[in-house]
Amino acid sequence: MTQTLHIIGGGLAGSEAAWQAAQRGVKVVLHEMRPTRPTEAHHTDTLAELVCSNSLRSDDAQYNAVGLMHEEMRRCGSLIMKCADENAVPAGGALAVDREGFALAVQSALEAHENVEIVREEITALPSKDWEHVIIATGPLTSEPLAQSIRELSGEESLHFFDAIAPIIDKDSIDFSKAWFQSRYDKGDGSDYINLGLTREQYDQFIDDLIAGEKMEFKEWEKNTPYFEACLPIEVMAERGRETLAFGPMKPVGLQNPNEPDARYAAVVQLRQDNKLGTLYNMVGFQTKLKHGEQVRIFKTLPGLENATFARLGGIHRNTFINSPRLLDGTLKLKARDNIRFAGQVTGCEGYVESTAVGLMAGRFVAAEIMGQEIVTPPDVTALGGILNHITGGADAMTFQPMNITFGLLPPMDVRNERGKRVKGKEKKAAVSARALKALDEWLDKTDKV
Which of these three, 282, 313, 344, is where a domain ends? Predict the structure, then answer.
């Protein structure tokens, strides 16, 4: 075997992909542009530098989807998880790390690996077929020359530089005694949206709350990225005039609540299905810079969302990501160039843990390909399989935005107690997690457990 894997980007995803492939005997060249070309966000030239928080979020593998993903990656021999565990600092139920110690541990492990070569250089264009196997893991700060090369191949509309993220809600947490299914003027199949009607009093209070709500500030390196008129924060629209939303994304025309046939609403919030499983719905037009706590507080005042659980909260920030559902196959391979895979945040997954997980899978897939083995993707009931399926086809390509792992990305599970009654909450999450880990172990037994 003489084939080499070239990985572009030495962040969490690129480092994990390099480790996974190298552990399987693949020769890896890891290309990292720092310090040759610095970024606006990084402070060092160390691989796997954490540029924002030092937390990898919840480490609860039983009741939290992120914690479940932690455990799955540990069982897959993840370098990132090993170094995180070795450099953990007190953080309650979360896994937080000593930032410097963690990054140095990752870099030292890769530098010491006989199958890994680290090259400090900027790659300014998509590699030719002379590089038989490539993983692009350049993250949200992909350099402009490489981004331009990706854009030329994928199409202008398939590479994004700005997240405009609306909150996503677990369907099971919506109160359907107040909400109803209907498309405006009954277009399409007539029931494509979940609707939440607001009286004049409720709408006026909602506008007041949006305007007064505490907002997040742009990071220094985001401040020169202007808003797009097509994706203005909902609170900015509210500030432009009290009726702007009622004549925009919250217009009430063409809708009638069968629960209250005589009701006349000043505004209507619409929720649109966000995944093929039908478990998640996004709030149409609700991209926002409100702080997360404010989003929960304010959006739970909307009729039908009083007990809502949010699979993802909204946000707007600078980012670089491709339209993965349109561009990638189920093994993260670029459909237009079969020697290139993408991994990490540039694929449209959100967060340190998810980026690492996609890097882990990309490294394993390439290794299997080089070894002439069948590529077997993780089961869809696992956290790994859930995020993979979402970014490679489970999400709607027309509305694709970055996403964290959530139990809502896994197939529904009918969990019942000894009396045959369907259970929810922690008991259901524990059952979903147990199902995931059992399936993961069976998958690892088939794919050369490390």
Answer: 313
- pLDDT, one tens digit for every residue, the chain (450 residues): 579 999 999 999 999 999 999 999 999 999 999 888 877 666 789 999 987 667 899 999 999 999 999 999 999 999 999 999 999 887 778 898 888 899 999 999 999 999 999 999 999 999 988 899 999 999 877 888 888 888 888 775 666 655 567 898 999 999 999 999 998 888 767 778 899 999 999 999 999 999 999 987 765 544 555 454 445 788 988 999 999 999 988 999 999 999 999 999 999 999 988 777 888 888 988 888 899 999 999 999 999 999 999 988 887 766 688 999 999 999 999 999 999 999 999 998 988 999 999 999 999 999 999 999 999 999 999 999 999 999 999 998 888 888 899 999 999 999 888 888 888 889 999 999 999 999 999 999 998 754
Whether 196 and 304 have beta carbons less than 8 Å apart is answered as yes
| Alpha carbon distances (Å) from 73 to 5, 78, 387 | 21, 5, 13
pTM over 0.70: yes
**What is the longest distance spanned by two Cα atoms in the chain?**
73
Of 255, 280, 313, the position where a domain reaches its end is: 313
Helix axes 79-86, 65-75, angle to 10 degrees: 110
Cα within 13 Å of Cα(379), Cβ side: 18
Question: In this structure, are 63 and 205 located in the same domain?
Answer: no
Residues 43 and 154 in one domain: yes
On whether both 124 and 71 belong to a single domain, the answer is yes
Q: Is 283 left (phi over 0), alpha (psi -120 to 50) or beta?
A: beta
